[in-house]
Amino acid sequence: MVRQVPIAGVGMTPFGKSPERTARELFGDAASEAIADAGIEPAAVEEVFYGNFMGEFAEGQGHQGPMAAEAAGVTAPATRFDSACASSGAAVRFGARAVARGDADVALVGGAERMTNLSTADGTSALAAAADALWEVRAGVTFPGAYSLMANRYFHEYGGGREELAHVAVKNHENAVENELAQFQRSIEVEDVLEAPTVCSPFGLYDCSPMSDGASAAVLVSEEYAEEHGLETPVAITGTGQGSDGLALHDRASMVETPAARRAGERAFADAGIEPADVDVAEVHDCFTIAEVLALESLGFYEPGEGLAAAREGETTADGELPVNLSGGLKAKGHPVGATGCAQISEMTKLLRGDHVNSDAVADAEVGVTHNAGGTVASCVVTVLEVMG
Amino acid sequence: MSEKARDAGYDDFLDAVEDGEPYYLEGSEGDGWLPPRSVDPNTGGELSEEPLPEVGELESYTVTQVASPAFVDDAPFVVGVASFGPVGATGMVVGVDPDDVEIGMAVELGVERTETTDDRVLAFHPR
Questions:
Q1: Interface predicted TM-score of the whole assembly (ipTM), two decimals
Q2: Cβ of residue A128 closer than 8 Å to a chain B Cβ
Q3: Given this model, what pLDDT does residue B28 score?
Q4: Which residues lie below 8 Å from residue B2, measured CB to CB, with a gap of 6+?
């Protein structure tokens, strides 16, 4: 980046089921926590960048940018970002760029989603809108269905099967056990995953992230503002990257690669001046178990076909060489889609500054990466966070 | 009460499949696409209409148990992605036991009606 962007504060509601709570209320809580954590007043915020995906469908509320600002007690200009499940990742990226460019000294970024007020069937419909409505959804493709197509093709090309994927779910549940913000604070066994009811072959229920309600927020500031106001900012965003791809899986050269994530990762790493080998800890978009595998390969941590065994081999567990999804990931922390990208930022910030329940697993970590994907990775935002020297 | 509007490109393509004359849009580098498109998504260049190969190859599939409301009465059903020469398409795999579906199998395009809504759906018939 032109300049690193200090993270002055983060906030996040517990993720889970609160069907009666509106997105505005959820975001108000997360934003207030982030603003308090930053040690600033709401009036200091100069611009709001907010992610939300299914507001019209879930609660008949579009135009959520100004709604988010109002909920946060902020009168600054506000814009909603929709990149499906990467909505708040995009919001964070544009907020960080605004600060890096000098357009704003203080940006409030984040997102919210209310989902569990919908039935499973309606929620399935709402999520499917991230796919190609003409050519995929009308053929019966659901969101789990689309990732199932990728998983079955992956097995066909590289071998492996459900058991390796089950280890991804087991790992992420284990990481969430002590995380009070997580939707599922319980461990599971490989057998639990394999014996769960089928959603779409090869996925059972435990291969899929849940429907969740929740919000996340962060306050990004310029280095000058932090210094002038004596803010403590131990962690900064040092690189961001974004990639796009065709909406429909069938239009891609390969169903087992996610070039939008590869491009986003390459741009973010170049932006920060780092290599994949420099990364100490990662939060990746495991909306389905196969998605974590594809993320690890796209970011250059593993060669194509070799990411599947990472969790089973203990390489990405809390005590592994590269801990992945110490928050519990989308699988166990929960996945209120519009909140997920900034929640990754919130959790990673805490992991790096030492006040996350799982910080001890990465006590010496200096570089963290977040990977936030939309649809079948037709959108992807990768963000590099570093401990400030 | 207004009648539901057609989706140009999509409904035209299904009509063409039903008429036995499916087509695709080809870019200057040989990539193929389904309509509607004004330009090649990869190059921004012009597209020409070409006849779609009759036989495709199934690239992947999944048996869906938990369906969206528009497909609840169809579940369980098989959805697949198939390549017809340079063109990829997504369709419901019909006329075969789900246990007998395999990646790599030859399929032909067709148009069926869904159980749930009686809407048209692009279908793959094993050859």
A1: 0.97
A2: yes
A3: 94
A4: none
Taking CA atoms, A329 is separated from A74, A179, A210, B88, in Å, by: 30, 11, 11, 32
| Digit-coded pLDDT (tens) for B70-89 | 999 999 999 999 999 999 99
Hey, what amino acid is at A46?
E
Picking from A149, A199, A250, the nearest residue to B65 by CB comes out as A199
In angstroms, the separation between the Cα of residue A106 and the nearest Cα of chain B is 38
- C-beta of residue B44 within 8 angstroms of C-beta of residue B22: no
Q: Provide the number of CB pairs (under 8 Å) joining chain A to chain B.
A: 109
Nearest Cα to A82, choosing from A111, A61, A106, A107? Answer: A111
- Taking CA atoms, A290 is separated from A167, B23, B39, B62, in Å, by 11, 34, 33, 14
Who contacts A385 (Cβ-Cβ below 8 Å, separation ≥6)?
Answer: A7, A235, A236, A237, A238, A345, A348, A349, A352, A367, A368, A369, A370
Which pLDDT score, from 0 to 100, does residue B1 have?
47
Distance of CA A47 to the CA centre of its chain: 22
CA distance A114 to B39: 37
Identify which of B33, B64, B89 has the shortest CB distance to residue A142.
B64
Positions in chain A whose pLDDT score sits under 70: 2
CATH class of A5-117+210-387: alpha beta
Residue type, A119: S
pLDDT digits (tens, 9 = 90+) for A304-361: 999 999 999 999 999 999 999 999 999 999 999 999 999 999 999 999 999 999 999 9
pLDDT computed for residue B2 by the predictor: 61
Catalytic residue among A167, A285, A335, A371: A335
In whole angstroms, what is the distance from residue A104 CA to residue A106 CA?
6
What's chain B's average pLDDT?
A: 96
Query: Is A135 close to B89, i.e. CB distance below 8 A?
Result: yes
Active site residue A85: yes
CB within 8 Å of A67: residues ≥ 6 apart: A23, A24, A61
DSSP character for B6?
P
Residues 3-62 of B with CB under 8 A from A: 7, 9-10, 33-34, 41, 59-62
Q: Please tell me the distance from the alpha carbon of residue A11 to that of residue A34, in angstroms, as a whole number.
A: 4
pLDDT by residue (tens digit) across B2-42? 678 999 999 999 999 999 999 999 999 999 999 999 999 99
Beta-carbon contacts of A1 under 8 Å, excluding residues fewer than 6 positions away, are A96, A97, A100, A237, A238, A239, A240, A271, A272
